[in-house]
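RECORD TYPE: inverse folding
INPUT: structure tokens
STRUCTURE:
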């Protein structure tokens, strides 16, 4: 009998990967599957970024780098932050990570233990809760409401803080809802946090580049008063269509940066060198591919919302960010997960049931528009047929 620690009996996963596997299996068996469950851009990494990685390999960048990343990349991150938000950050507090996810892994490991509480958005990225449970800390969901455009409420978040709270996780623009929290609400949260000076904040801003309707991304970096307890999570995966490269960055408080460095030394040594050179090219090179991708998402966003709202029993709020919609399906009579499953099995359209993102996700499904407009139209036509068929009434 092998005795692993109890945390591994509590650790969860992302059902999106299971749906992807089932969708691929159906496709392999000859079914015409359209994947609207996907959480990654359907675009290629821009060519100049790919070339930079190839050049780095040809130039002999084959060895270890410093654990928290090469200086030129950390400087490029700091410059990019300054350009975008007018905020100065030190490259010495930037950690280059093997993906955005590893920042949440590190932060939750650093703050979670039995007896403490960690607040996280629900519905939200499933790994937050999974990792909180792994550490033995108590997961405290911050309910995310459709009525607030799927942004978080500062008042509700502040009301959940107790003397046992160690870390608050926030995410805007958000997965799975596409919700964006208005700046005024973030102002309120930050003001309220003055009462809780020992609570750390992890702001997951991996979708920062994807906001619509002229909305500017409101970053937690704009609040110097919390900089000494802010962990800012960002990365290249979504912005530059680089999910498979495994490249992210985070900014850490001075007081704990060395802990991240040591975790990297113990865990992954460094992010692979050519990928880091690709990261420099991404940040310092032309941004037209990013703008084109976001413009394409914006066009599809309007199409998907219009088509979803035309489906019987379905209503979809207009998402202000990321590339997800989170339609309310409660009036179809179906529970969300059985509906998502039936849609995949019966119509070949993959979506994710809201409860895979937390208990407050019941009544919703996640529909990603990281797929072509043609596929979105075809998929939602099939969903319409399915929902209109009296045999499928619930
Ligand atoms: N944070 C959120 C909210 C996400 O949706 C994702 C990926 O889906 C990540 C972080 C992880 O990004 P990465 O692929 O860079 O690890």
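DESIGNED SEQUENCE:
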């Amino acid at each position: 009998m092998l005795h692993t620690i109890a945390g591994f009996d509590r650790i969860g996963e992302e059902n999106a990967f299971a749906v992807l596997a089932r969708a691929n299996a159906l496709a392999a068996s000859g079914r015409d599957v359209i994947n609207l469950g996907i959480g990654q851009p359907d675009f290629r990494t821009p060519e100049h970024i790919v070339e930079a990685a190839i050049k780095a390999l040809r130039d002999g960048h084959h060895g270890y780098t410093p654990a928290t990343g090469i200086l030129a990349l950390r400087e490029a991150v700091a410059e990019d932050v300054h350009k975008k938000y007018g905020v100065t950050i030190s490259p010495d507090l930037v950690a280059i990570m093997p993906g955005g996810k590893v920042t949440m892994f590190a932060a939750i490991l650093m703050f979670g233990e039995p007896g403490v509480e960690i607040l996280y958005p629900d519905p939200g990225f499933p790994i937050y809760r999974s990792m909180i449970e792994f550490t033995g800390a108590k997961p405290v969901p911050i309910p995310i409401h459709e009525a607030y455009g799927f942004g978080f409420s500062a008042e509700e978040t502040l009301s959940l803080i107790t003397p046992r709270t160690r870390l608050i996780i926030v995410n805007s623009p958000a997965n799975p809802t596409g919700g964006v929290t208005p700046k005024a609400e973030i102002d309120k949260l930050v003001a309220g946090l003055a009462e809780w000076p020992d609570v750390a904040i992890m702001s997951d801003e991996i979708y920062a580049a994807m906001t619509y309707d002229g909305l500017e991304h409101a970053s937690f970096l704009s609040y110097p008063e919390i900089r000494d307890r802010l962990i800012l999570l960002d990365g290249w995966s979504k912005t530059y269509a680089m999910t498979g490269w495994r490249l992210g960055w985070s900014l850490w408080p001075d007081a704990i940066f060395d802990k991240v460095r040591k975790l990297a030394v113990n865990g992954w040594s460094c992010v692979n060198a050519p990928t880091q050179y690709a990261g420099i090219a991404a940040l310092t090179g032309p941004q037209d591919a990013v703008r084109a991708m976001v413009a394409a998402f914006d066009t599809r966003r309007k199409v998907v919302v219009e088509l979803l709202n035309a489906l019987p029993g379905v209503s979809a709020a207009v998402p202000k960010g990321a590339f997800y919609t989170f339609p309310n399906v409660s009036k179809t009579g179906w529970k969300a997960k059985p509906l998502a499953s039936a849609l995949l099995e019966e119509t070949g359209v993959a979506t994710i049931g809201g409860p895979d993102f937390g208990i407050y996700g019941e009544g919703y499904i996640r529909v990603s528009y990281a797929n072509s407009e043609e596929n979105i139209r075809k998929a939602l036509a099939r969903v319409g047929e399915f929902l209109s068929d009296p045999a499928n009434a619930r």
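NOTES: The mean pLDDT is 97.
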